[in-house]
Specification:
two-stranded antiparallel sheet, mainly alpha, 396 residues, 19 helices, 2 strands, globular, 68% helix
Length: 396
């Protein structure tokens, strides 16, 4: 029992360290010297690895065999090949600042950290950490009030995307006390409203699909067996639709104004065309194995801080293309093999919560085009690998 409690604490500590790394810049940059914040970020990453090691030392890490082990080894080879082809000149300072940012080495370590944890066994404890992690977005919002609604459509990052944890919490809401459920729904509602105000079309679509899936599957048994529950669900949905329709004139000139003005504006095709044009003149190896962790393609960009113009861009908003840029088609196949294997297994389980995870993983097939959730050290990446690991593990 004591050993189990110790492992449970280590698992919670890993997720706490992940959150600390995600939240530190936005929470502390205005309060502490940047050098100290960077040190704290590195300490959070070290803590994540240390507590993962302690789980291995207790021989409590998740076990994988057969096809699952093959997938892990292939992904490990892809990620290692991406990392070793990074540009490591510039000394120790450049290494620590540039290579250990959210787009660097930690992004390629994170999948193996989460996959190694006994997530199914300690899901309730993980939910506690994710709940408190999501609440950290509130002080970040208070510290960055003037950035919550921005004209250049990037305010979803204010709060370090931590409210996205609410998706998992809504799916598992039956395991939360009533007060926490209310807080989770309120926090998600505020974040979704911010996405509407900032015309974040991709986030609105992604969050909408995930919320509906998590909400229904989180109480699937009641909706299936209880007529009252189905009536309540339909009544609630109808009331929201009626409220929007009757107040459309006011909402379209206020809450929905930005997203309606943006409408079907095409902001991706030109970027994707530049990427494809650059890759078209490249060796076949760039398509197969990518250009490494610091790989770029030709597109003119300008720094918001220094206004410096560059012709090389190391990120693209389309997730599939970003994975091709960094690790090629092999990297895409490696990630999708996890996605489809875990999704199919979850959907076949017959258990509502696992089926809910399978449906959420199915949404990632679309989300990988709309955003870049898997190639970065980010909340959506954490959720993705958490759901994959729970779907693959055999504890219940």
């Amino acid at each position: 029992m004591a050993e189990g409690n110790k492992v449970e604490q280590y698992v919670m500590a890993v997720y706490a360290c992940i959150t600390a790394r995600l939240a530190a810049p936005q929470l502390l940059d205005a309060l502490l010297p940047s050098t100290l914040v960077r040190i704290l970020e590195l300490l959070a990453l070290c803590g994540m690895l240390w507590f993962t090691y302690r789980i291995y030392a207790c021989k409590a890490n998740a076990k994988y065999r057969g096809w699952q082990l093959v997938m892990i080894l292939v992904l490990a080879a892809c990620n290692l090949f991406i990392v070793v082809r990074g540009h490591y000149g510039g000394g120790i300072k450049s290494l620590l600042l540039d290579k250990f940012n959210l787009h660097g080495v930690p992004a390629y370590i994170l999948p193996f950290v989460i996959l190694s944890l006994p997530n199914k066994q300690y899901i309730k404890s993980i939910l506690k950490v994710l709940f408190w992690s999501s609440l950290i977005s509130v002080p970040i919002w208070l510290l960055n009030q003037t950035d919550l609604v921005l004209e250049h459509y990037s305010a979803e990052a204010v709060g370090a995307y931590l409210p996205v944890y609410c998706i998992i919490l809504i799916l598992f809401r039956k395991k939360l006390p009533l007060r926490r459920r209310v807080i989770v729904f309120a926090l998600f509602g505020v974040y979704f409203l911010l996405m509407l105000l900032n015309a974040r079309r991709n986030m609105v679509v992604s969050l909408s699909l995930m919320f509906v899936t998590a909400f229904i599957m989180g109480n699937a048994t009641a909706f299936r067996k209880s007529v009252k529950a189905r009536i309540a669900l339909l009544s609630g949905a109808g009331a929201i639709v009626l409220l929007v329709v009757t107040n459309w004139a006011s909402l379209s000139s206020s809450v929905f104004q930005s997203i309606l003005n943006r409408g079907l504006e095409d902001t991706r095709s030109q970027v994707e065309l530049l990427f494809l044009m650059d890759m078209a003149g490249s060796p076949v190896t760039d398509w197969v194995i990518g250009r490494g962790m610091d790989g770029t393609y030709m597109q003119m960009t300008q720094s918001e801080d220094t206004y410096e113009v560059s012709m090389d861009r190391d990120v693209i908003e389309t997730g599939y293309l970003l994975m091709i840029l960094k690790g090629g088609i092999l990297y895409v196949v490696a990630v999708l093999s996890f996605l489809f294997t875990a999704m199919i297994r979850a959907l076949r389980s017959g258990k509502a919560l696992l089926v809910g995870m399978g449906l959420l993983l199915a949404i990632y097939i679309l989300d990988l085009y709309m955003t870049t959730p898997v190639s970065h050290f980010a909340v959506k990446t954490v959720i993705f690998w958490l759901m994959v690991s729970v779907s693959l593990q055999k504890l219940f």
